[in-house]
Amino acid sequence: MKKTIFILLDGCGFDVATENLGFLEHLVQEGQGGKYKILGELPSSSRPIYETLLTGLSVFSHGIVNNSTVRRSKEISVFDLCVDSGLKTAASAYYWISELYVRAPFDPDNDRIRLQSESAINYGIYYYEDIYPDSHVFNDAEFLRKNCSPDFLFIHSMNLDDSGHHSGCHSKEHHMTALKVNELMATFMPKWLNAGYQVIVTADHGMSEMGLHGGNTEVQRIVPLYLFSERVRKGSFCESTISQLLIAPLLCDLLGIEKSPKMKNLEDLGVDLFEK
Ligand SMILES: [Zn+2]
Known about the structure:
The chain has 276 residues and is an alpha/beta fold. The chain is 39% helix and 19% strand. The chain has a single domain (4-269), classed as Alkaline Phosphatase, subunit A (3-Layer(aba) Sandwich), CATH 3.40.720.10. The chain has helices at residues 14-20, 22-29, 46-55, 59-62, 78-84, 95-101, 108-111, 134-148, 159-167, 172-194, 218-221, 247-255, and strands spanning 4-9, 34-39, 89-94, 113-114, 123-127, 152-157, 198-202, 222-228, 235-243. It has a nine-stranded mixed β-sheet, with helices on both faces. Strand 4 (113-114) and strand 5 (123-127) form a beta hairpin. Helix 8 (134-148) runs parallel beside helix 10. It is globular. The structure holds zinc ion. Zinc ion binds at residues 11, 46, 161, 165, 213.
C-alpha cells in the first residue's frame, strides 16, 4: 500500500496545463514523474466525469448522465474500495462529490465539513461556490492530510472551470488562474512527495474558446495526466491519447488495493505506465 493524493483540476485542458503548470512540467523534466495526454469520456461535463474518474465506468454505464443527475452513486468507487481494504479516505472537493459519495442533496449547514463520516469518504471539507479560492481548497486538503492522515486524499479545485466559463480557454483570466494553480503546486508538491505520497494530477474535461464544455471536440476533451510515483515511468509520453477509464484502476494499483470487477484492466488499455 502506498499513500496517494489525487488532484482533479476542474476544466483544465491539456494545452492550458502545458502552458502554465510549469512546476509540474519541471518535475517531469527532472525525471520525477510521467506526463500523458488523456482523451476524456463523453459528455465532457463535470458530474458525469467525476463518477467516471472515481468508478472507472463510462457515463452510459454508471448513469450519472448530466450535471442535473443529483443522487448518490450506485457504483463501487475508489473511496469504497479503500474503506473495504481498511484505508482512510479524505476529500477537499466541490459539493457534487459529497452528493455522489456521502449524501444527496447537499445540505451546507450539515454537510460542508464532515470530520467523522460513516460514508466512504471518511473526512471531507466541501465547498459550494465555484469562486471558492483554489488556495483554500488546497489548504483544506492540507488540514485533512495533517490532521486525519488519509491514505487516499482527493483534492478538487474549481477556479479553472469558473474562469474558463467567464472568458474562454484562450483568455488571460483563465491562464492567470492556471498560473495560480501552478504556484499552489510548487508550494505543496515538494511537501507531499517528501512525505512519501504518490501524486496524480488530471482534469475532468477541458474548455472551448467560447467558455463551454460538454461536447466532442479536442479542446473540450483532451486533458493532462501527471503521475508522480517511484513506480511509474519517468518522462513525457504525449504522442497519442490514452483512455480516461484508466484513472480509477490506476488509483487502485497505486494504492495497492483490488480494483472493482467493473473497472478495466490496466493491461487491456494498452498503456505502459510503470517502470519495468
Ligand atoms: Zn464547467
